[in-house]
Amino acid sequence: RLEEFLKKEVDLELSTLPDFEERVIDFSEVEQLMNSINTIPAPCAPVINPQAPNAATGTSLRVCWGLFSDDTVECYQLCYKPVSNELCSDEQTEHTLKVKETYCTITNLLPNTQYEFWVSALNASGISPPSERAVYVTAPSPPTIKSKKIRSCENAALVCWESRDINPVDSYMVEL
């Protein structure tokens, strides 16, 4: 019987058409309310620390900063460039790094050179204003001793050296 039933053509035409109302439901107020609940504000500007003692080598600098608010921060954007009196120098290029921590060690820098640093905080809502700018200085390169000019006698020695730095060095310490 089932086989015979399945072979029959069945006409399933509805006698009346269904009446559906075309309603447009406005969820804008609900959406606004939900967005206001989940929104976090953009963070405040971080505060960059001045250069700490022993935070530099001839080619690297350790830069630290802080965020003095309860802002939610996903990462920081650290920017830096060499300080120069020349206006259109190729070395004036700004560098930008994304950092998760409140510190960063920057490498491959020039010895005895001033660098300007500033930092911004980022979260899902946006980016903070940049911090104040801070100037850090890399350590000078060690001088080269001119061995052909060394002179000595019983009570004294004359040692000459040459700086490999472009910028002047404040002082040298000679250890015996």
UniProtKB/TrEMBL annotation:
PROSITE patterns: FN3. This is FSD2 protein. InterPro entries: E3_ligase_FN3/SPRY, FN3_dom, FN3_sf, Ig-like_fold. SMART domains: FN3. It holds the Pfam family fn3. Residues 46-142 form the Fibronectin type-III domain. It comes from Grus americana (Whooping crane). The gene is Fsd2.
